[in-house]
Amino acid sequence: MRYITPRKAARGLGAAGPSTGTAQHWSMTVSSVALLILTPAFIFVVASALGLPHHAVFAYFSRPYPAIVTALFLIVGMLHYINGTRIMIDDYADHTERRVAILASQLFGWAVIAVVVYALARMALSPVVAPVAAVVVN
After folding, report:
1. Span 6-18, pLDDT tens digits
2. Rounded-to-integer distance, Cα 38 and Cα 72, Å
3. Helices 64-92 and 21-49, interaxial angle, to 10°?
4. What whole-number distance in Å separates Cα of residue 26 and Cα of residue 33?
5. Cα–Cα distance for residue pair 97/40, rounded to 1 Å
């Protein structure tokens, strides 16, 4: 017969255990500060690209500053989203619902990151082609 004290059963659980709310809190705090800095830069980048024709947008985002700011903003933002939804789901869902919801939110977050990085890489690495004038046949 094995006797386990309540203290021994609780070790590693709760606020003092490994990978607890403290790590999540710091992760959310760091990503919040990063977003606080990146948001105005991202707004400036997007505002500068508004109204440009298609080829000019490609040329604009093939430059390093707009591409890096956009990538950093969206990656940090989606990591903040993944951590935030994890905390919310842990608080309000149980058992199978929790696992499915966490998996869905993480898949969504990482899919958005992959799409953004792919799109920016494609714009940065594709040759800039001058716009083709439409030929009107009468």
Report:
1. 766 666 555 555 5
2. 8
3. 140
4. 11
5. 37
Q: What is the pLDDT of residues 72-126, one digit of tens each?
A: 999 999 999 999 999 888 888 888 888 999 999 999 999 999 999 999 998 888 7
List the structure tokens of 44.
Answer: 């400036």
Apex CA 116: angle with CA 81 and CA 108, to 5°? 40
Q: Rounded to two decimals, what is the model's pTM?
A: 0.76
Question: 99 lies in which domain range?
Answer: 53-138
**Cα(85)–Cα(97) distance, integer angstroms:** 13
**What is the total count of domains within the chain?**
1
- What are the DSSP calls for 55-111, one per residue? HHHHHHHTSHHHHHHHHHHHHHHHHHHHHHHHHHHHHH--HHHHHHHHHHHHHHHHH
In a domain, 48, yes or no: no
